[in-house]
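can u do me a favor
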């Protein structure tokens, strides 16, 4: 049976963990699971590797987890912690020897073009090593990458509509404060669900742990991994308190599901 794998490049919140200037127990923890870069993943199947979001640490993430090649890029939304490593795509262009296909919705693409407009234009021959080059594909429904169907998962991030994605029996849903009722049918029958769980306290733009548990139990995936984790959640202590089949993800973890 074919499978799809998800590599966590980062499982942290927008400030990362440890946070600048913080000396809390998690930020000073020696447990490597408590070191969290900004949220991004690589989804792989049949020899194809797709990057989801381009965090400010993209270069460091790729080096840390031996990500030497990317075949395509998919974006969830345009907040800074998800897009500001976009220029680092140029190295993947160089390795591939050509442009990179990019999937995003219109608002995300508009934001990317404001900051990285040069990446949407073919660079001159003498600059091809020094500039990223992407070919934009507008998301207006399910789409295929290397013969495999990607299903956009409509989510709310505060007042902002964004996308998670389902590939086979794996779903990646970061930055969630509400799952619309019409979205739940798209999340049935999952092997692996990756879901936002920022902290214990309720937040206006992210699920709390309690809200994430409630959503995860309704969805009923075989395994649920929480991401976009803040510095109030210790990896070891939090996992001890979570229901069976639900736990915190960590940077460098690989999860697999049927395709």
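np, heres the sequence
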């Amino acid at each position: 049976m074919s499978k799809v794998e998800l590599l966590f490049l980062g499982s942290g919140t927008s400030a990362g963990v440890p946070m600048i200037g913080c000396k809390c127990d998690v930020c000073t923890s020696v447990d490597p699971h408590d070191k969290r870069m900004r949220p991004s993943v690589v989804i792989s199947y049949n020899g194809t590797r797709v990057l989801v979001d381009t965090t400010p640490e993209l270069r460091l993430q790729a080096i840390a987890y031996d990500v030497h090649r990317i075949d395509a890029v998919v974006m969830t939304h345009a907040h800074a912690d998800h897009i500001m490593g976009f220029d680092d795509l140029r190295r993947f262009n160089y390795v591939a020897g050509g442009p990179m296909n990019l999937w995003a919705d219109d608002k995300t693409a508009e934001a990317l073009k404001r900051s990285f407009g040069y990446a949407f234009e073919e660079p001159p021959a003498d600059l091809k090593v020094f500039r990223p080059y992407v070919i934009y594909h507008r998301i207006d429904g399910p789409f295929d990458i290397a013969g495999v169907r990607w299903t956009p998962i409509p989510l709310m991030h505060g007042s902002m509509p964004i996308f998670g994605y389902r590939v086979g029996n794996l779903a990646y849903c970061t930055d969630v404060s509400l799952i619309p009722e019409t979205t739940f049918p798209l999340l049935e029958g999952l092997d692996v669900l990756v879901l936002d769980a920022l902290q214990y306290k309720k937040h206006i733009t992210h699920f709390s742990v309690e809200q994430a548990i409630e959503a995860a139990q309704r969805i009923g995936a075989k395994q649920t991994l929480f991401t976009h984790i803040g510095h109030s959640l210790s990896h070891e202590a939090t996992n001890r308190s979570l229901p069976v089949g639900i736990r915190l993800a960590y940077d460098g973890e690989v999860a697999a599901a049927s395709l």
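The helical segments are 58-64, 80-83, 89-96, 106-116, 209-219, 235-241. hope that helps!!
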